[in-house]
Amino acid sequence: MLSNSTTSEIHAIFAALGDPIRRMVIEYIAAHGPQTATQLATQFPISRQGVLKHLIILNNAGLVVVQQVGKEKRYQLVPQAFGSIEQWVATLSIVWDERLSRLKQLIEE
User: Fold this and answer.
1) Which domain holds residue 81?
2) Which listed residue, of 42, 49, 60, 99, carries a Cα 20 to 30 Å from 93's Cα?
């Protein structure tokens, strides 16, 4: 079972990733490295302000961090943030493996 803080992190991450634009932003940053909101706005069919709103949600979920480089704010992916999702999936996988093993045992009896 996961801790309450891990569960809260997972909820925030899934809520942030629930929007297709935010998933595309994450994918773009992962592929191209740190980006400014202006750079990202050229890649998506939304305004710079729209991109900023998505980046704030991604930042609040811990999926991106802001780096101040001179006058620019660059948003960088936080790969470690996906570790709690990986842990959650692994926990579910163990539970299902156990259930399937019990089912197999029942069928074989």
Assistant:
1) 4-108
2) 60
d(CA 23, CA 11): 15
**Tens digit of each residue's pLDDT (9 = 90 or more) over 31-82:** 999 999 999 999 999 999 999 999 999 999 999 999 998 999 999 999 998 8
The predicted pLDDT at position 84 comes to 82
Handedness of CA 19, 24, 5, 67 (dihedral sign): negative
Where residue 78 sits, what CATH number does that domain have? 1.10.10.10
Is 0.85 topped by the overall pTM? Answer: no
